[in-house]
Amino acid sequence: MNLKYILGTIISIPLLPIMYYQGKRIRKTIPSLPEAKGPSGTVKQENEAKPITILAIGESTFAGVGVATHDEGFTGSFAKAIAASYNTSVDWKVYARSGYTAKKVTERILPKVEEASADLILIGLGGNDAFTLNRPHQWRKDINLLIEKLRKKYPETPIVFTNMPPIKEFPAFTPLIHFVVGNLVEILGEELNELIKHHPKVYYNSAVLTIAHWSKVLGVPPDKSTFFSDGVHPSRFTYQVWAQEMARFVKENEIL
Q1: Domain housing 128
Q2: Any idea what the CATH number is for the domain that residue 155 is in?
Q3: Better-predicted residue by pLDDT, 143 or 219
Q4: What pLDDT does residue 30 have?
Q5: Model-level pTM?
């Protein structure tokens, strides 16, 4: 059992009624944004080599909540960055739903994945498992099952997990929720980082996303309205910056 999780649970249990009340208030103030349209696309390059096929599977960030189309969201931006980096065309497809945990993705989304082959599988999860206070050992079981199901269909395809969502940065959340849920999502990330060591060709970008880092690197003011669309989900700008960082992660680790 994760010691950090045990200590966090002991501290958090008396605060859960307050957090529940705060969560209800927050849900009333956050606009209900739709998922992005256009869940598939192609990025063309002059190179006549066979296109790279990328599948993106996950929760609301991969569902494109916060932007109008997937082309301007994470997956479309990632595909453009990969196409430019490898000088090859990219076919991409999104399989994602807002509100889904790792367990729901495995049960409800994986059966709908229709591609017979893929060159890269991206997984974006963690936020909803943290919001639902999923336990670390159950998270490990859920992720292991997700990987096992994917491996049956795609035995050699690299699987890449994106960074955990930066819940401590969400401007819509209270300090209490930042503490409880933000710490939990970081614990889930640590568990994932250990878990992938037991799975060949499975990767996880463990870098913790922060506004301060992006602000410094990009030379933009640390204004959270620039980085978030509704106080929780990324803005178009953030999706594109995050996607470019993930494309660099793939390139630097020679995953493709």
Answers
A1: 3-252
A2: 3.40.50.1110
A3: 143
A4: 82
A5: 0.93
Long-range CB contact pairs, 171-174, < 8 A, 24+: 171/224, 171/225, 171/228, 171/231, 172/26, 172/29, 172/30, 172/228, 172/230, 172/231, 172/232, 173/26, 173/231, 173/232, 174/19, 174/22, 174/26
Number of domains in the chain: 1
Distance CA 230, CA 88 (A): 35
φ, ψ of residue 73 in degrees (nearest 5): -90, -160
pLDDT at 13 (0 to 100): 80
| Model confidence at 214: pLDDT above 70 | yes
pLDDT (mean) for 32-54: 92
Q: At what angle do helices 236-252 and 211-218 cross, to 10 degrees?
A: 80
Nearest to 78 by CA among 248, 218, 197: 248
